[in-house]
């Protein structure tokens, strides 16, 4: 199968987590022992930023205490050690997503990774026009008459870079719409994608709807059209087993801060044969072979896209986060989060005046739920929950077009992770049940 396994298969194949195990896991996360507004912290905002286990915090601290030096630039002992742990981290992340070592590029976050790809594609047209670089650049160049296709449920990070690529190159941007339930209209997707489509970019799992998109079908449509396929894996890489080779995508991105790691580190996966041809996005030191006063020659990937001093300690910490998830078992994490997600949705649907976005209870989704409270603005809902120690996300979640399509300007979103218990979900549901009466709606 293209996905490693389907979530339903995973649920049958892996042993279940339970509250007792999760309570032991919580001991690895210092911040979860805090009180907020005099209440036990119930952290349900991992879809925005997850918390860090001690092993991740200690990995970054240990780097600064024992090995802090510039990588790839020095011959002294600390520089060699720093380079080794930095590149070992790259191998760990490559293994984590089923990629090759040289196909794994460090970025600051997923947003930078998507911008890297979009700018590299517009630079491809410039290089090809001047006869610079590999002859294959002509096939990658985006220009007038070409199509870039996204979906109506995209995070702004996987929409605006493609809007700007269309603006820079004269290409046309189109999108696959959703139906009233929030599912992609694959019938319309089949009509949109064709010989003019150069890029198909879509999210693996929606950060608003909780939907897990049909990657196999979308990739097949992209391959039939001859398009490059770009996967936003921000809400999937931290939560379910991911194998980019098996998925057959050309690029994939995700951010460390959503998968137990620090901020300031992300990953771009790209097929080796494409990365080695694409022009770089950022230029400067560490990504060159030869420089004269007139021009430069560039290294192959991944260094080709890693100009300047890198995020060394963050990369080491991201590898520690990947190891933590691997040791826990991502299939088990996904199964537990699915149970929590179903508990959230079923509970929310039972509360009068609540509209839940995305798949209904009993339908597959990741462990998050965005909802609207009739008569109460999302920001007021969030403040009410915060007064009870419950942390959630409010607003449009960087998905304004999706909210607009569903007739909303903002929602409240609760998102679970491996350190949340059923008690967390129940405390959240009990608090939400009191929102409308508190505001006298």
UniProtKB/TrEMBL annotation:
The keyword Ribonucleoprotein does not apply. Its cofactor is pyridoxal 5'-phosphate. Keywords: Pyridoxal phosphate, Transferase. Residues 42-428 form the Aminotransferase class V domain. One of its GO terms (biological process) is cysteine metabolic process. Its EC number is 2.8.1.7. Pfam families: Aminotran_5. GO terms for molecular function: cysteine desulfurase activity; pyridoxal phosphate binding. InterPro entries: Aminotrans_V_dom, Aminotrans_V_PyrdxlP_BS, Cys_dSase_SufS, PyrdxlP-dep_Trfase, PyrdxlP-dep_Trfase_major, PyrdxlP-dep_Trfase_small. It catalyses: (sulfur carrier)-H + L-cysteine = (sulfur carrier)-SH + L-alanine. PROSITE patterns: AA_TRANSFER_CLASS_5. SUPFAM superfamilies: PLP-dependent transferases. PANTHER family: CYSTEINE DESULFURASE, CYSTEINE DESULFURASE 1, CHLOROPLASTIC. Catalyzes the removal of elemental sulfur and selenium atoms from L-cysteine, L-cystine, L-selenocysteine, and L-selenocystine to produce L-alanine. Belongs to the class-V pyridoxal-phosphate-dependent aminotransferase family. Csd subfamily. This is Cysteine desulfurase. It comes from Pseudarthrobacter sulfonivorans.
């Amino acid at each position: 199968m293209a996905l490693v396994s389907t979530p339903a298969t995973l649920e049958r194949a892996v042993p279940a987590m339970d509250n007792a195990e999760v309570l032991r896991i919580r001991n690895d996360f210092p911040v979860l022992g805090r009180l907020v507004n005099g209440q036990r912290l119930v952290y349900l905002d991992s879809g925005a930023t997850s918390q860090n286990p001690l092993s991740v915090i200690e990995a970054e601290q240990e780097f600064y205490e024992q090995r802090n030096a510039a990588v790839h630039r020095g011959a002294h002992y600390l520089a060699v050690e720093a380079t080794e742990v930095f590149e070992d981290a790259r191998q760990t992340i490559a293994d984590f997503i089923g990629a090759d070592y040289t196909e794994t590029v460090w970025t600051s976050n997923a947003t930078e990774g998507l911008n890297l790809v979009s700018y590299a594609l517009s630079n491809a047209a410039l290089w090809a026009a001047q006869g610079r670089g590999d002859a294959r650049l002509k096939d990658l160049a985006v220009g007038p008459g070409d199509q870039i296709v996204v979906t109506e449920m995209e995070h702004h990070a996987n929409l605006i870079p493609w809007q700007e690529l269309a603006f820079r190159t004269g290409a046309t941007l189109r999108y696959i719409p959703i139906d009233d339930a929030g599912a992609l209209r694959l019938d319309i997707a089949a009509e949109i994608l064709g010989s003019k489509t150069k890029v198909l970019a879509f999210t693996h799992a929606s950060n608003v709807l909780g939907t897990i998109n049909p990657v196999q079908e979308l990739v097949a449509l992209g391959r039939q059209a001859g398009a490059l396929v770009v996967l936003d894996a921000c809400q999937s890489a931290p939560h379910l087993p991911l194998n980019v080779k098996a998925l057959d995508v050309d690029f994939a991105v995700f951010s460390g801060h959503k998968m137990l790691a620090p901020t300031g580190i992300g990953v771009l996966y790209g097929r080796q044969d494409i990365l080695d041809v694409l022009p770089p996005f950022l230029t400067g030191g560490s990504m060159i072979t030869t420089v004269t006063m007139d021009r430069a020659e560039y290294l192959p990937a991944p260094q080709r896209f890693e100009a300047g001093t890198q995020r060394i300690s963050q990369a080491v910490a991201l590898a520690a986060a990947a190891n933590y998830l691997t040791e826990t078992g991502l299939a088990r994490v996904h199964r537990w989060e699915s149970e929590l997600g179903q508990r959230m949705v079923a509970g929310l649907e039972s509360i009068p005046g609540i509209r839940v976005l995305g798949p209904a209870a009993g339908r597959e989704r990741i462990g998050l739920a965005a909802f609207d409270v009739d008569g109460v603005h999302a920001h007021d809902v969030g403040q009410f929950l915060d007064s009870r120690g419950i942390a959630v996300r409010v607003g449009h979640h960087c998905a304004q077009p999706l909210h607009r399509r569903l007739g909303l300007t903002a929602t409240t979103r609760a998102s679970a992770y491996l350190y949340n218990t059923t008690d967390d979900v129940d405390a959240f549901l009990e608090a939400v049940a009191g929102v409308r009466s508190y505001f006298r709606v």
